[in-house]
Design a protein that fits this description.
460 residues, mainly alpha, Fumarase C, Chain B, domain 1, Fumarase C, Chain A, domain 2, Ribonucleotide Reductase Protein R1, domain 1, 3 domains, two-stranded parallel ribbon, 20 helices
Length: 460
C-alpha cells in the first residue's frame, strides 16, 4: 500500500504506477536520502519532537538499509513510487512504529529537493576532479611543446605562427573557467530546502540551521515556497556542463582535423581509435566524433530543464520529476566524455615536423613582414599593402616570403635590408611575440605557471 493511500478508496491503476514512478532513475540517490533522513531524525530528537530511542532506532535502521543496498543484499522494489518512499517503507518494515515517525515535519517535496542538492553537490566535486586531471594533462603537453611551431588559424585559414603549447593553453583557459563555473554553481546550490515542508513550512519547532550544519549546507533557504520549487541549481549545472561540453566539442573538432592526412599534426594511440569494416587503411577518431554528438544531447538536457520550468506556478508540480533524468544524463555524459578524453590526449603523438612544415607554407609571416617595414618608419597601412603585394608575387612565382631575393624586395621599398630574413623567420616571429598571453615559448611557460597557481586556488 502507498504511504499516502489514506485519502483513496481504490488502488492506483498499474499503468499509472508505471508512468508515475521515478525509482528507476532516482534510486541512485539512496545514500543521499539516507544522509538527509539521518540529519532530520537527529534534529527531531534534539528538538524533542520524537523520542531519543526512536531516533536511535531510525539511525540504526537507515544505516542497515544503506549497507544492504551497497552490498546487494537489498534491491530496490520497482513497485515503489520513488527512492524516498522505498527507504521509508523498508525502514518501517524493519523497526516498526519508530520508522513511521521519521517523516514528521517533512514532505517529499523538501526531501527530494535536499536529496538532489546533496547528490549534485557530490557530482560537481567528481566532475571538477576530472576537469583538473584534464587541465594537468594539457599543462604537461603544453610544457613539452611550448616551442613547437604551428600555424594559427582564423576562418580555418592559416593566419599567424604560434606554438602547439600556446594552442593547448587556450583550452586550459576554457577549462579553468569551467571549474570556476562549477564552483559558483556549487556555492549557490549549497542552500538547504529541508524544513520547507510541502510549501508552507511546519508547525513543529524544528531547527533548520542544525540540519543544515549536519548536512554541510551554508544555510537554510530563505523562503519555503522557493525551497521546494527551485530548480535553478539543476539548470545552472546543466548550463555549466553544456559549456564544458562545448569546449570539449571544439577541441574534438580540431583533433579530428589534426588526425586527418590533410593535416597530420597528431596521431592518436591505437587504443583510442577505431577502424572500418570495409576500408582497411582507416583509423578513425571515433571518441572525438562521439563527443561532438553527445554535446548536442547535453544541450537537449538543458533545454528540457528550461522548458519544464518555464510555465510552472508555485510551488511543487509533478512536472519537476523530469529534472532528474535530464540533469543526471548531463552529469553522466560529461563524466563519460572526460574519462575517455583524458587518456586519449595523454597518449597522442605530436608531429612537430608536420606542424612546422604547414606553418612554412601559409605565408603566416606576412604580418611580421609588414611590422618590419612599420618599425623602420613606414605607416602600417602602406606596409600592409606592400606585404600583401609580395604575397601575390610569391603565389605567382611558387615561392615563400623568406625566399624572395633582396633585390626584388627593394623594388617594393628601399627600407628592405638583409635583416629582413631574420625578422620574418618563423622562429623569430614566434619568439618576438612578447605581448602578455602570446605564443612565444617564454610566454607559454609563464601561462603554464599561472594556470598551475590558479588550479591550486580553485581546489584549495
Amino acid at each position: 500500500m502507498k504511504l499516502w493511500a489514506g485519502r483513496f478508496q481504490k488502488e492506483t491503476d498499474d499503468r499509472v504506477n508505471s508512468f508515475n514512478t521515478s525509482l528507476p532513475f532516482d534510486r541512485r540517490m539512496y545514500a543521499h536520502d539516507v544522509a538527509g533522513s539521518m540529519a532530520h531524525a537527529k534534529m527531531l530528537a534534539a528538538q524533542g519532537i520524537i523520542a531519543a530511542e526512536d531516533a536511535e532506532k531510525i539511525l540504526a535502521g537507515l544505516a542497515g538499509i544503506q549497507a544492504d543496498i551497497e552490498s546487494g543484499k537489498l534491491t530496490t522494489d520497482n513497485d515503489a513510487e520513488d527512492i524516498h518512499m522505498f527507504i521509508e517503507a523498508e525502514l518501517t518494515a524493519r523497526i516498526g512504529d519508530a520508522g513511521k515517525r521519521l517523516h514528521t515535519a517533512r514532505s517529499r517535496n523538501d526531501q527530494v529537493a535536499v536529496d538532489t542538492r546533496l547528490y549534485l553537490r557530490d557530482e560537481i566535486d567528481s566532475l571538477n576532479a576530472l576537469l583538473r586531471e584534464l587541465i594537468e594533462t594539457l599543462l604537461k603537453k603544453a610544457e613539452a611543446y611550448a616551442d613547437a611551431i604551428m600555424p594559427g588559424y582564423t576562418h580555418l585559414q592559416r593566419a599567424q605562427p604560434i606554438t602547439f603549447g600556446h594552442h593547448l593553453m587556450a583550452y586550459v583557459s576554457m577549462l579553468l573557467r569551467d571549474v570556476e563555473r562549477m564552483n559558483d554553481c556549487r556555492r549557490r546550490m549549497n542552500v538547504m530546502p529541508l524544513g520547507s515542508g510541502a510549501l508552507a513550512g511546519t508547525t513543529y519547532p524544528i531547527d533548520r540551521r542544525m540540519t543544515a550544519e549536519l548536512l554541510g549546507f551554508d544555510e537554510p533557504c530563505a523562503n519555503s515556497l522557493d525551497g521546494v520549487s527551485d530548480r535553478d541549481f539543476c539548470i545552472e549545472l546543466a548550463s555549466a556542463i553544456s559549456i564544458a561540453m562545448m569546449h570539449l566539442s571544439r577541441f574534438s573538432e580540431e583533433i579530428i582535423l589534426w588526425c586527418s592526412w590533410e593535416f597530420r599534426f597528431i596521431e592518436l594511440d591505437d587504443g583510442f581509435t577505431t577502424g572500418s569494416s570495409i576500408m582497411p587503411q582507416k583509423k578513425n577518431a571515433d571518441v572525438t566524433e562521439l563527443i561532438r554528438g553527445k554535446t548536442g544531447r547535453v544541450y537537449g538536457d538543458l533545454m528540457t530543464l528550461l522548458t519544464m520550468m518555464k510555465g510552472l506556478p508555485l510551488a511543487y508540480n509533478k512536472d519537476m520529476q523530469e529534472d532528474k533524468e535530464a540533469i543526471f544524463d548531463a552529469v553522466d555524459t560529461l563524466r563519460e566524455c572526460l574519462v575517455t578524453f583524458i587518456p586519449m590526449l595523454d597518449t597522442m603523438t605530436v608531429k612537430r615536423e608536420n606542424m612546422r612544415m604547414a606553418a612554412a607554407k601559409g605565408f603566416i609571416n606576412a604580418t611580421d613582414l609588414a611590422d618590419y617595414l612599420t618599425k623602420k618608419g613606414m605607416p602600417f597601412r602602406d606596409a600592409y599593402k606592400i606585404s600583401g603585394s609580395l604575397v601575390g608575387w610569391c603565389v605567382q612565382n611558387d615561392t615563400v616570403l623568406e625566399d624572395i631575393p633582396l633585390e626584388t624586395l627593394r623594388t617594393y621599398s628601399s627600407l628592405f635590408d638583409a635583416d629582413v630574413y631574420d625578422a620574418i623567420a618563423l622562429e623569430t616571429c614566434v619568439r618576438t611575440r612578447v605581448s602578455e598571453g602570446g605564443p612565444s615559448p617564454e610566454s607559454v611557460l609563464r601561462q603554464i605557471e599561472t594556470a598551475k597557481q590558479k588550479l591550486e586556488v580553485l581546489f584549495s
